[in-house]
Write a structure and sequence with these properties.
5% strand, 3-stranded mixed sheet, two-stranded antiparallel ribbon, single chain, mainly alpha, 322 residues, 11 helices
């Protein structure tokens, strides 16, 4: 695993030992992760297909949803397939480059998703609180710039953290008590007091993420105040039922990540740490298609149109071909 040259240690691989100490979890998490991954993949692919081929789903909101689904597919694919393969093959190793790539891609996509969620909250704020200015404010060029800025900020965020994490020397043992390489678990392997810079990056990032969350909360305060002025009880309920799940997913995604990154980390396995990691790395990509998209009546109509067309084609084939 390592080669020693003078006083330095060159790392060639890490061992991912997330669920190996618990035989019950070891037997359950592979089918659970596989089902979650399949659900996330199918749900997000469906959103991308619907928002691409249906002309009624070309508004800014659906443009953002399409990008969110693309991010979610990539986000969950960074960690879950590798974990499943390791468990099935009884191998737990991941190369140094593979671990660094996993951290970069995970942080890159997590940062991009969070930035896009902030953008989506602003989109809803303009749509509900300033409907007369919506088309001019959220024009195609502005939406494209917002999405590009989200991807760029995520890339910068990932680059900073992977550089900070792997700029420190590691003293071993090179066992990561997680099902993927994440910053808190990898930093526990760093030599004493060598990881201060990256911890400073983590604290600064969490503080900045919390400030962005306050901006998101402010947007929703304005949204809810506007909703309360809607005379129709059905209209109020419809808007609340859409916004509250959005806010719930953002809170789950943000605070489970912050709790895991700022919590006490040790070189021993922790069931709580694993659980928190699942909350912010696996569940959001699976829940987002349901919460943000498939509960939407326009998305349901587009899906019904596709399924209806396939049913008509099938009946035609049965009647005239057979």
């Amino acid at each position: 695993m390592t080669e020693k040259l003078t006083n330095a240690t060159i790392i060639t691989e890490f061992l991912l030992m997330g669920f190996t100490d618990n035989q019950v979890l070891q037997g359950l998490y592979v089918p659970f992760f596989f089902l979650i991954y399949l659900t996330a993949l199918m749900g997000n692919l469906l959103v991308i297909i619907l928002t691409t081929i249906d002309q009624r789903l070309q508004s800014p909101m659906y443009f953002f949803l399409k990008n969110l689904s693309l991010i979610d597919i990539c986000y969950i694919s960074v960690t879950v397939p590798k974990s499943i393969i390791n468990s099935l093959t009884k191998g737990h190793s991941i190369s140094f480059l593979g671990c660094a790539s996993q951290i970069f891609l995970f942080i890159f996509l997590a940062g991009t998703e969070y930035a896009l969620l902030i953008v989506m909250s602003y989109d809803r704020y303009v749509a509900i609180c300033q409907p007369l200015y919506y088309e001019t404010t959220m024009n195609r060029g502005t939406c494209l710039q917002m999405v590009i800025a989200s991807w760029a900020s995520g890339c910068a965020y990932g680059s900073i953290h992977v550089a900070g994490t792997f700029s420190v020397p590691f003293c071993g043992p090179y066992i990561v008590h997680q099902f993927f390489c994440d910053i808190p678990s990898v930093l526990t392997l760093a030599c004493s007091e060598e990881q201060i810079l990256e911890y400073a990056f983590v604290i600064a990032s969490c503080a900045f993420a919390f400030l962005c969350f306050l901006f998101l909360i402010a947007s929703y305060v304005y949204i809810f105040s506007a909703v309360l002025r809607i005379p129709s009880a059905q209209g109020r309920f419809k808007t609340f039922s859409t916004c509250v799940p959005h806010l719930t997913v953002v809170i789950l995604f943000l605070f489970s990540g912050i709790a895991n990154y700022l919590g006490t980390n040790s070189k021993s396995p922790s069931s709580l740490s694993l659980f928190m990691s699942v909350l912010y790395s696996v569940l959001p990509p699976s829940l987002n298609p349901l919460i943000y998209s498939l509960r939407n009546k326009d998305m349901k109509a587009a899906l019904g149109k596709i399924l209806g067309g396939k049913l008509i084609f099938k009946n035609f084939c049965l009647k005239y071909i057979h």
